[in-house]
Amino acid sequence: MSPKKTYGSWGRYPAFPQQGHPIHWRENVAQALVDSAQRSPVLAYGCGRSYGDSCMAASDHVLLMGGMNRILSADWGTGLVVAEAGLTLAELTRVALPRGWFLNVTPGTKFVTLGGAVANDVHGKNHHVMGTFGRHVRSLTLHRTADGAVTVSPVERPELFAATVGGLGLSGVILTVELQLRPVTSSDIEQTSIRFGSLDEFFDLAAAYDRDNEYTVAWIDCMATGKKSGRGFYVIGNHAKEGELSAGPTDVVTFPVDPTVSLVNVFSLRAFNFLYYHSQFRRRSVRRVPYGQFFYPLDRVSMWNRMYGRAGFQQYQCVVPYTDGREVIRSMLSEISRSGTGSFLAVLKQCGALPSPGLMSFPLHGVSLALDFPQRAQINQRLFANLDALVHEAGGRLYPAKDAHMSAAHFQSAYPAWQRVEALRDPQLLSRFWQRVTR
Amino acid sequence: MTQGVLIVGATSGIAQALARRFAQRGARLFLVARDSANVQSVAADLRARGASAADVFVMDLNETERLDLMLKSAWQTLERVDFALVAHGTLPDAARASSDSAYLIQQFRTNAESVIVCLAGLARCFRSQGNGVLAVIGSVAGDRGRASNYAYGAAKAAVHAFASGLRAQLFRHGVHVVTIKPGFVATQMTAHLDLPARLTAQPDTVAARIESAMETRRNIVYAPGFWWLIMTIIRLLPEALFKRLKL
């Protein structure tokens, strides 16, 4: 027999293989926590799409929530759905979209569970108009070792609700999520893509278009230097008014090899970014695309994280407040291009001012930048230290769901409410991330 | 009229996956399982996914004296049963089964006796209805007793033989019997085992195969299909060689 299957995080760094304990029913959660008392503390694990160590338990034993994936009620008249926490956004969309309902907020992959979406208070390309995922959660039930199953909402035990939304799965094992969906009349997105030549142009485009368009995001060529620095595409999307309501094909290809070393290096990056930037001939291109192509382009390649090799990769995602966001982003981009490392997708997005109900939600009213870096200890340490200093000085912060490196000092100053979450943490639950940043 | 579907052992991983496929088509479902809270969750899920109805009957299939009541209730609720699946079962702990007689008897009772008694009851109802498809979950383990799990294999072999006879008998009454033989499937029944990843199927893969086997009235179906080749080879091995293998 092959060695027992273990579970990790999407970035494959740090590598702490997690032993999985499957949960199939809500009533099994209590017993699983009792069973784990000897090796405690554990953590609920959904799809493992967190990049760093926030989905890893301090004990390296996780509760696999994927089998707990039932929709417990769905009112297709109002779009209010109650489902178990292990249901993926992909599956919920497959059921809801043909009935004319879609997620209010979706991250860049549909392969996350409802529980994971709540615990990380995920956001999407419409953050500036819809805020985070947690804003659309009406209530939750969670299992806490001390209290058993409890229901929390903005009015019922509000402090516990606030500690659970963006609470990284520490306040209890999320059992069910009551979620408000939004009506749509088509499963297509009207997409406009505008090429820009500099960071200033990006900010001009964002100022002109963000207000009147639901989905906006920009891709930038982080390998470009000098006059070309900051060039990229600004992408706008809005739900089409009419058309088919189709959940679409679910065919995926799997990244076929698991190379020893990263296929992402300075040469492949230069070539990719150059080709991508020049792939659009016109400055402005308007198309109608299926929702999957717009929201989840990478989901079509299963296990794309393999392209970074066995050592894995780290995603660096930060948000900095508007005040001097432009200059901070400019400095960061020049640091990154000077380092000669970078990613296929450097993503820039303006986040809005809508507050999250969560205590530790990531987005700020400001600018968010995300890039992937192949895991190379020395380069990353030096580069990340420089970037961290810029982010910290600007009053910005890093995204725990993507993080494998942030210092305890930076975390604690960026998320001052962490102690309120710690106060409500279930002592049976602890992640490697939390252990690292609360020391 | 929408299809009527009866599922026995409705909280099992394969049964849930199959029920979701029928729910998506708007079927009316009647679910039988032991744990009330769990089967109610399954029923709610099926309704949300499009089932016209999902009714629940709570029973331990080992309590065969309640079988007739269950069948009566199913036919009353659904009026007509187009498809039935018998999916309940356990995976005995092989070591305990070899040392604990009471445990061995109890496991055999759950995986063989309660299944064939249920099949016999369903056969009576289907025969008077005059049509329908009855599927039962056997196992590749029932094809040959292997050293690692012959207690389970023996029970499944009994189910295979019973289903085979039933198929021949019901054939002339317009009722079809399908024997499903899954290999390794990632469900709650196998969650504690270290299954070889490449040979382990997801419940929905098996469910898709069951759905098409029921619709096209296949007789014996391995799920996934590659198990036919593996089991053909295993069945053809001479006993003198087979007993020396660690399978």
Describe what you observe in this structure.
The complex is a heterodimer of chains A (439) and B (247). Chain A is an alpha+beta fold. Chain A folds into 2 domains: 71-184, Uridine Diphospho-n-acetylenolpyruvylglucosamine Reductase, domain 3 (2-Layer Sandwich), CATH 3.30.465; 188-404, Vanillyl-alcohol Oxidase, Chain A, domain 3, CATH 3.40.462. Chain A contains 13 helices and 21 strands. An 8-stranded antiparallel sheet of chain A has the order 16-12-14-13-19-20-18-21. In chain A, strand 5 (71-75) and strand 6 (80-84) form a beta hairpin. In chain A, helix 9 runs antiparallel to helix 10 (377-393). Chain A starts with 5 loop residues before the first strand and ends with a helix. The relative contact order of chain B is 0.13. Chain B contains 9 helices and 7 strands; from the N terminus they run E-H-E-H-E-H-E-H-H-E-H-E-H-E-H-H. Chain B has a 7-stranded parallel sheet with strand order 3-2-1-4-5-6-7, sandwiched between helices. Chain B is globular and about 55 Å long. The termini of chain B are far apart. Chain B is of the alpha/beta class and 247 residues long. Classes of the chains: A alpha+beta (439), B alpha/beta (247). The A-B interface holds A 1-5, 22, 24-27, 67, 70-74, 81, 84, 95 and B 13, 35, 37-38, 41-42, 44-45, 48-50, 188, 191, 194-197.
